[in-house]
Amino acid sequence: MKSIAVLASGKGSNLQAIISSIDNDQIQQADIVLVLSDKPMAGALTIAKEHEIECLFLDPFYYTTRNEYEQAIVENFKEKNIDLVVLAGFMRVLSPTIINAYPQRIMNIHPSLLPAFPGVNAVNQALNYGVKISGCTVHFVEEEVDAGPIVLQEAVPVLQEDDVTSLQQRIHSAEHRCYPRAIDLFCREKIIVKGRRCYLYD
Ligand code: GRF
Predict the structure, then answer these.
(1) Ligand 1 midpoint to CA 15 (Å)
(2) Contacts of 79 (CB under 8 A, 6+ apart)
(3) Which tens digit of pLDDT belongs to each residue from 73-89?
(4) Measuring CA to CA, which residue among 179, 134, 141, 147 is closest to residue 22?
(5) What is the mean pLDDT of the chain?
């Protein structure tokens, strides 16, 4: 059984998808033991409470440096023997303080087919560029933003009539399939990372 910590700043729809997938056994061998947010009003905290999952708001403004803030996060993780850190809309770039404490054990989901459109407003970037296919990417987190080894991707066609909201909605649906699947593979130890490539054995 793997213990998961989820870091989230926003609505928490991915957190909800992960919780539902654990409940219906689409993710096996996993338990979310902590949901941590940098935003007191994050929907993710409400979702955690509704499901009686321990949750914590850690105020970044309370700490003098980013390093101190991340050390506090790592301390919370260590107390709970976290095996996997899941970033689900956590709006902060992580430094080596967290990344080196959990090598290849931090996952992120990004709303584009990386390496296209990293960073913020990925859906907007894709629409403005005029691509016909976008999607989502689950990857391990390394120091360079949105650049770690890719676990899974799902393509989403960009339709003629799409605006940011409609494309984002369909990408979100893809995320809610991809992220639980990637987490399940990790928890059942079906992922081997060699260099940039993730080999999936299932
Ligand atoms: C998702 O679109 C994800 O790709 C990005 O942040 C968003 C989080 O959405 N990293 P939600 O809070 O899970 O609904």
Answers:
(1) 9
(2) none
(3) 999 999 999 999 999 99
(4) 179
(5) 97
DSSP 62: G
Q: To which residue do tokens 């090598």 refer?
A: 103
Q: Reply yes or no on whether 176 is catalytic.
A: no
Tell me which CATH homologous superfamily contains domain 2-200. Answer: Formyl transferase, N-terminal domain (3.40.50.170)
Q: How far, in whole angstroms, is CA 11 from its chain's centroid? A: 13
- Read off the pLDDT of residues 44-66 as tens digits, 9 standing for 90 and up: 999 999 999 999 999 999 999 99
pTM recorded for the entire structure: 0.96
Which atom of ligand 1 sits closest to the CA of residue 171? Answer: 2
Question: Could you give the CA distance from residue 20 to residue 168 in angstroms, rounded to a whole number?
Answer: 21
Residue in the block written with tokens 């080999």: 199
